[in-house]
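Hello,

Our lab assistant flagged a job as stuck in the queue for most of the afternoon. It eventually completed. Since we weren't sure the result was trustworthy after the delay, we are filing this so someone can double-check. Below is the sequence as submitted and the structure that was eventually returned. Let us know if re-running is recommended.
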Amino acid sequence: MPGEERRPPIHDVRMRGFKDRVDVSDVLAMLQNRLQLLDVEQVSISAAAGRVLAQSVTSSMAVPYFDRSAMDGYALRGEETFGASPYNPLEFRLIGESRPGKPFSGSVGPGNAVRIMTGAPIPQGADAVLMAEMAESDDKVLRVFEPVPPGRHISRQGEDIAAGSLVLDAGRRLRPQDAGLLSAIGLSQVNVVRQPVVQIIVTGDELLPPGSAPTGGMIADSNSVMLEALVRRDGGLPQKQDIVPDRADAVQQALRESAADVLLVSGGSSVGPEDHAPMVLAREGELAVHGVAMRPSSPTGVGFIHGRPVFLLPGNPVSCLCAYDFFARPAIRRLGGRSMDWPYRQVTLPLAYKIVSAVGRVDYVRVQVRERQVYPIAVSGASILSSTTRADGFVIVSRDSEGYPPGADVGVYLYDE
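-- returned structure --
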């Protein structure tokens, strides 16, 4: 009809297999180019740890805010203590005390001293703090047994943070001590990148709710439980819904109704007659990738609806984990302001047995580490979730490699921290 948007015909790949598979690096480059930081929100500093700072923070005040004592002892004029010794104690008149939050209100004149506690303001007129063990006193007289030079045991105003100085850069994932620093400079709230809301859509007529006992031909859903934990690890806010039937209209409704920043569709991503997700995504938005040159997870799809990324993750548990970690993980982290790098600790160790791969394909190989050697435990079996629980980590074989011989040093990404 005139004025109606015309889309190119959608090619149905179901039951025909994948003619071409996209390189992993090309998918990652597309995501990096097309995804931007989410908007900014304010949170209280008590909720700031773990969030990503949206704007650099400059301190409007000095820390410490005033000269304060670094020791329990006595505030006095340091020059007046010169010559003091156990054989020649010098006497000072005690005129009061300074406590944290309760400073001494007077001035320390010649021959005077003030009892002071760690963190308390240095009284006017004093320029040093004598350690308590270097003197003795009664209520009125202080006897000094050791000299203390001017400036000793005093934390000066601005010694920690100078007023007007940059204290935290934008893009920093705030640590607990960072939140403490924000409080120290007088902030009650801070601007952070909004956490991505991630909709988890699990499809499959054969699935029961998580934790159900399998019966007949039905199995319990495990992918949603795994994905929810992964999303939280990567700074996202997971949303789950009831299992979606293997019907095109049900998948379509699930995609249309979600207002999340990222959509994860587990199952129905391949080329079987019940794999509706790729066709539905192509009709509702854009199917940018369907089929990736990797093992496992080759049926992975990536697309967009109204600019929001959609990841079609295979239903097999290992493939689901692999596809999430390779593609959804960096996307969620990028939207939330985090690094797109792998969040796993990496070690380099020699292989006990060879790993065989094929040029042109990335392989995700589960491995165990025993006695400082790497043992591949599975190179296939995308439905064997226990292979990931038995594994200590994984090795990535790049697309230009045929694998690694025994004894070769390989980089292992460790599941545990």
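-- support follow-up --
The delay was a queue issue, not a problem with the job. The result is valid. Residues 24-39+195-335 form a domain with the Molybdenum Cofactor Biosythetic Enzyme; Chain A fold (CATH 3.40.980.10). The longest strand covers residues 90-98.
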